[in-house]
Amino acid sequence: MSLLELKDVRKTFGAIEALRGVTFSVEEGSVVGLVGDNGAGKSTLMKTITGVYRPDGGDILFDGLSLVGKDPGAIRQAGIEMIYQDLALARMRCVAANIFLGRELTRSVLGVRLIDSKRMRAEAEAMIARLGARIPSVAQMTGQLSGGQQQSVAIARALTFNPRLVIMDEPTAALAVREVEHVLDLIRTLKTRGIGVILISHRLTDVFSVCDRIVVLRQGAVIADDAARDTSMNAVVAHIVGATDAPRQEAHP
Amino acid sequence: MASTTTPAASPSWRQRIVGGAAIRVESLLVLVVLCAVMAALSSAFLSVSNVLNILLSTSVFGVLAIGMTFVICSAGIDLSVGSILALSGVVGAMLTSNLDLPWWVGIAGCLAMGAFTGALNGFLITKGAIPPFIVTLGMLGVGRGFALVLSNGISIYGLPPQMVWLGQGRPFGVPTPVVILLLTALVAHILLTHTRFGVYAQVIGDNEGAARAMGVRVERQKVLLYTLSGLLSGLAGLLFAARINSGEPTAGISYELTAITATILGGTNLFGGRGSVLGTLIGALIMGVLQNGLNLLAVRPFYQQIAIGAVLILAVWLDRINSSQGWRR
């Protein structure tokens, strides 16, 4: 059984068919590259998986259980974390508060659940250290950090709660060369720990260097789904821009 | 003037003094300077009875401003607080005075009316996807209208003594509304800074998309925020009615202006993301001192409106200058 199975997922916004029956799957410990031109439906698809959008048709199975109709909190609880392209950080809150956003640690005082900032800071500190990220202090306001540091916070948040599937939307787009290598290494580490990864990226060299499979979306449909070793940069580019009219190749195990 | 930082106001210094409560030193400075000026201009200003007077007059819109703090830090606005205040007071007075129901029904009626109207605001904003500005502006009219319709436009006189005590009582010499304001501020401060509810309010104002993506139930949270603002407007309505011993349909006109000004003066970001109840308390005191001082100096009340409006614009302008210099703690 696959970790994540998308079956004929559809989503329309008014007259626009953003997703026209998307089907593919992600195995445990595998990295799937999701590529496609702007407007191909990548972000819509991911927001549908994470529960921000509700699909109009089809099914999304995680560990065999349907995710359709669950809210983003429940889907995170199930073990799917996403690192958003815009990072989804609250910039006026501290690093620790962002890492625990939506999952604040609390302690009970006279029956009232109060946020345990001290414990959150300590655990955030440990997580940042484990990732080898350089952040002056977890008490620092997130908006005051550099772009790369903010990226680290978003990554730390995704990895703190032992996810089983991590979705990364353009995690390397805003990074310097050395930081990119760091993120790619991190993806390889996740893979060895049996965590599934969906990597959305325009940088095909990154995609080819870490992905096991490459799925190409065009106009809301999957037009290619190949093992990375069975395809080439040129073929993927051709699929992205629509230079081939080849029918969709069936996914093989 | 108020936007400059004194050398002593380093983050660590501030944090130690205000315990991370995000009170702006500038707000405190304004309050102190204002008090000094008033004390110099009027010998009556610093008398115990006048100080209690200021606190008493601050208590009604102070309670409104505390609710406003939650709404504004979530990047919302509630223009209906003054109307809800009047409507709640009228309902509370009708229940006890006209229907002869016991005092606790009157109190519960005020609070329930406020909370209900606030919840209605929240539902219209979230389910109806109408901007808060429009919904609460509409409710400003609707609430006031209902208050006038229910009361036939005349004040409903004569509340049970227990209710009147809430407005006129003086336990240990301190007016009851002041005690209630301080208790409300204490609870609200804990709620805003130490619970998920308060933190999520600020995160929604900071980055609503992030809040949603991280599993915060944004819609539910917003309904609760406007309900809280309504509830506190109901409480303010209760205090107001109790103080004048009647439900007054024209009570609290333009109080939204005072409440918003107090909130912004207290350092809550008009565009959402951070808020401070203790700051709001300082802001409300600034407004109270200003009004009181102008009264003592025998300035005609008409000028007070001008002063309050000008202070609001000035406060937002200073805030813009501050935030354009980058975030500071």
What's the topology here?
The complex is a heterodimer of chains A (253) and B (329).
Chain A: E1 4-13, E2 16-26, E3 31-35, H1 42-49, E4 57-62, E5 65-66, H2 72-78, E6 80-83, H3 95-99, E7 106-109, E8 112-115, H4 117-131, H5 147-160, E9 165-169, H6 177-192, E10 196-200, H7 204-210, E11 213-218, E12 221-227, H8 233-241
Parallel strand pairs in A: 3-10, 3-11, 6-9, 9-10
Antiparallel strand pairs in A: 1-2, 1-4, 4-5, 7-8, 11-12
Chain B: H1 11-18, H2 25-41, H3 48-73, H4 81-98, H5 103-126, H6 132-151, E1 156-157, H7 161-168, H8 176-194, H9 196-206, H10 208-213, H11 218-244, E2 246-247, H12 255-265, H13 277-296, H14 301-324
Antiparallel strand pairs in B: 1-2
What does this structure look like?
The N and C termini of chain A lie close together (11 Å). Chain A is built from eight helices and twelve strands. Chain A is α/β, with parallel strands linked by helices. Chain B is mainly alpha-helical and 329 residues long. Chain B has 14 helices and two strands; from the N terminus they run ααααααβαααααβααα. A two-stranded antiparallel sheet of chain B has the order 1-2. Residues 1-21 of chain B have low confidence and may be disordered. The interface between A and B is medium-sized, with 32 and 24 residues.
User: Given the helix and strand composition of chain B, which structural class is it?
Assistant: mainly alpha
Mean pLDDT of chain B: 88
Name the overall outline of chain A.
globular
> Please, what is the oligomeric state?
heterodimer
Strand content of chain A: 25-35%
- Low-confidence segments of chain B: 1-21
Helix content of chain B: over 70%
Order of helices and strands of chain A: EEEHEEHEHEEHHEHEHEEH
Radius of gyration of chain B: 19 Å
- Report the end-to-end length of chain A measured between terminal Cα atoms: 11 Å
Largest sheet of chain B: 2 strands, antiparallel
Give the CA-based shape of chain B: globular
Total domain count of chain B: 1
